[in-house]
Design brief:
This protein has 1 helix and 8 strands. It has 140 residues and is mainly beta. The strands form 2 sheets. Strands 1, 2, 3, 4, 5 and 6 form a 6-stranded antiparallel sheet that branches.
């Protein structure tokens, strides 16, 4: 991974074999980012994305392997318990143009990843909500 900062924006290049969530959390820690929005694209060789099943309060991930182009990578960087927290969604298309996606658990870059991290002035934390079963924005 390599990145450059331009004012409130970081432009990040992810390299083959790097895992997206892990690398973005590393950038957030290194740059002491408390709040940011994420936007990206690129290519991955494997990823796990899915949906949160509210009735069961459980994430259902689907694993994909092969050649995929990231159609959309979007999300937020916040903090939970003083550590960076990434909430990302990703859609990726295969060679037939079928697109799969959802909440991103992990994704490994195949060719490259290009991510723009826009740092926002402020802080938003996360707190676990028992009723819903998710880590929600905490504005305290």
């Amino acid at each position: 991974m390599e990145y450059r900062r331009f004012g409130d924006t970081l432009v990040v290049r992810l390299d083959p074999g790097e895992e997206i969530v892990e690398q973005l959390l590393a950038v957030a820690a290194q740059e002491k980012i408390h709040l940011a929005e994420i936007n990206g694209l690129g290519a991955v060789r494997e990823f796990t994305a899915g949906v949160f099943r509210l009735a069961e309060k459980q994430f259902q991930g689907n694993e994909f392997r092969g050649e995929f182009e990231i159609v959309s990578l979007t999300g937020t960087l916040t903090e939970q318990d003083g550590k960076p927290y990434a909430h990302l969604h990703m859609s990726a298309g295969d060679r037939e143009g079928r697109v799969f996606g959802g909440h991103l658990s992990r994704a490994v870059i195949s060719a490259t990843g290009e991510v723009v991290v826009r740092v926002l002035d402020g802080r938003v934390g996360r707190r676990f909500d028992q009723e819903i079963g998710l880590n929600l924005f905490d504005f305290q």
